[in-house]
Amino acid sequence: MYPDLKPFVFENEYQIKTINFAKPKAVKALNTALLYKYYGISFWEFPDTNLCPPIPGRVDYIHHIADLLKDSKVKGNIKVLDIGTGASCIYPILGVAEYNWRFVATDIDKISLESAQKIIDKNNLENSIELRHQKELSQIFKGVLNEEDCFSVSICNPPFYKSEADALEATTRKLKGLNKESYKLVRNFSGTQNELWYKGGEKAFIHNYLYESSLFKDQCHWFTTLVSKKDLVKGIYKSLKKLGVTDIKTINMRQGNKASRIIAWTFK
């Protein structure tokens, strides 16, 4: 057993070894162990206040993107743009481990980028992953892409909430689902302001992303994003058609009881 995970493991009433999923440190230790065992990531450390991504869901996105590129016959050396990589740098390290892709990863938070760079350096991934700081909160591609940049695909896990209150409400529902209402109101996957909420929420962020993709349509073959709320899909399709895309796809994802989806579009 991964040593850092051992203190959090216990045997439940059904004599099954498990962890307390309401505790952020336990969740982080489990995901660190998964990265170590299955993806060869020996160093994955970042502040406990930052979002700890669930590895199965993140690698699922990577596999779906690989299928998208294969089905649409995108060939050559795959280069991926990761929008909002966070302190964990999770999509780039998984994409390199699984497919040996190259990445440019952006983020608005300098401190998060410092943590991500340490993960890159400690795992000897500096030749595969480049980090860039996005200085403007309202911009996605502007300010970080150069004229010569060309990507096979962009990926994005947008902030889902409109505010801190919105995020805490979701945490309350999650703890209730885990039968842990008595626990202190702490997100079991943690997360900072830039990672969790955005003015206008998921809808506003994604529509900003859609618009900016039309300004950089020749520099990326496929643009993709996770979409948490199903009722946003219709509006996304409508906006993309107005922007002149040539193809749109919805890729459904499911991890346990959680259903989500990837929206992919191209101007090619």
Number of strands: 9
Major sheet details:
7 strands, mixed
Spatial arrangement of strands, main beta sheet: 5-4-3-6-7-9-8
Helix content: 25-40%
Structure description:
By secondary structure, this protein is an alpha/beta fold. 37% of the residues lie in helices and 20% in strands. It has a seven-stranded mixed β-sheet with strand order 5-4-3-6-7-9-8, sandwiched between helices. β8 (247-255) and β9 (258-266) form a beta hairpin. The longest helix has 17 residues, at 55-71. The N and C termini lie far apart (48 Å).
Core attributes:
single chain, 268 residues, alpha/beta, seven-stranded mixed sheet, two-stranded antiparallel ribbon, 9 strands, globular
Gist?
The protein is of the alpha/beta class and 268 residues long. It has helices spanning 24-39, 55-71, 90-99, 110-122, 164-177, 193-196, 201-215, 233-243; strands spanning 9-11, 17-19, 79-83, 102-107, 129-133, 151-156, 220-227, 247-255, 258-266. A hairpin with a 5-residue loop joins strand 1 (9-11) and strand 2 (17-19).
Give the topology.
Elements: E1 9-11, E2 17-19, H1 24-39, H2 55-71, E3 79-83, H3 90-99, E4 102-107, H4 110-122, E5 129-133, E6 151-156, H5 164-177, H6 193-196, H7 201-215, E7 220-227, H8 233-243, E8 247-255, E9 258-266
Parallel strand pairs: 3-4, 3-6, 4-5, 6-7
Antiparallel strand pairs: 1-2, 7-9, 8-9
Helix pairs in contact: 2-3, 7-8
